[in-house]
Amino acid sequence: MSSCCGSPEPAEQPSCCGGEPDKKSRPDLLLWSTLILVAIGYSLDLFAAGFIQTWPAVANMAEAIHQLMNSMWIGLALGMFFVGVLGRVPREFVTSLLGKGDTFFGIFRATFAGVLLDLCSHGILLVAMRLYQRGASLGQVMAFLIASPWNSLSLTVILIALIGWKWTLLFIACSMTIGIVSGLIFDFLVRGGTLPANPNTVELNGFKPWQEAKVRFRKAKFSAQWWLSMMWEGLKDSRMIVRWLLLGVLLASAIRTFVPIDSFQTYFGATLAGLGMTLIIATILEICSEGSTPIAADLVTRAQAPGNGFAFLMTGVATDYTEIMSLRETTGSWKIALFLPLVTVPQVVLFSWVMNVVGT
User: Fold this and answer.
1) Which of 97, 99, 205, 266 has the smallest number of Cβ neighbours within 10 A?
2) Average pLDDT over the chain, rounded to whole?
3) Stated pTM of the model
4) Cα–Cα distances in angstroms (integers) from residue 32 to residues 85, 233, 247, 317, 342, in the given order
5) Is the pLDDT of residue 240 over 60?
């Protein structure tokens, strides 16, 4: 069936997040285990809240799961819809729209493309490495990688539900700023010979995205089957997002249950010590952006530290060993890999500190 954006492309395997499993592969243990635990907790608070009061920890955990899922379900449903829509957009459109590397507009386009692409942080990592292999400049790759992990459309909608429009839009603006500044810095370092240039750089092959989009749109047939197919693809392709999001719900619920709010505000509050503790935990905790989102929301709402929530979302991509090792393997340069945290972490700390000062 033809569509304005083309038929869905074969799914790629997005690292730890996983894509669609092979036909006879093992069940997705992370997805099913987290789904079952969340369903049990939600059902207990919904149907047996009085009965489980005998076990305070169980009651508190179930209540936290219930509250989080009630806040997130609309955003999650909309996110699945967006995943289905974006799954119909051929990669050639994204690649060509990045434009010429080593320019401000090229960096800006890469940042904007990263924000729009609906993948988890590790899925984004694979796409970023592929962009490097296809010839994007180092600055474009870094801008794309830094700005995008939690800025996908689905997570943005969920984050709005959890912390509100004001902080969500500010987080997006600051992360895009960091992505653009970092991209410009990396391209400057390449021009100065400090970092190696991308050997895969090539000229665009003449693909004209807007003309192609017009042609495909004229051929589109938006039948009921097309819409059902798109929604099914969105549901199916959202598995890699949902599994980590559910894990984040469980972790955030556990924090609400076992960490008193006074202690939470003390250790992760809007202080330099709290910000430092947040950076350490975000570096150690190997979790996708979907899992980080509910925890970051708790840092904003319960710890009253919006900057710490922003730092928790941003520091993963800046200091995560997965990103660093992937950059090393793809570029063949330890220097490029280690410059990622060197360039980005100071910016994250600065923006986070300002948010804590202004927001408290």
Assistant:
1) 205
2) 79
3) 0.66
4) 25, 19, 11, 26, 38
5) yes
Query: Angle at which helices 165-191 and 153-163 pack, to 10 degrees?
Result: 140
Q: What is the mean pLDDT of residues 276-289?
A: 72
The confidence band for 75, taking pLDDT boundaries of 50, 70 and 90, is: low
Task: Measure CA of the first residue to CA of the last residue in the chain; give whole Å.
Answer: 53
CA angle 332/337/343 to nearest 5° reads: 145
User: 245 and 77 in contact (C-beta within 8 Å)?
Assistant: no
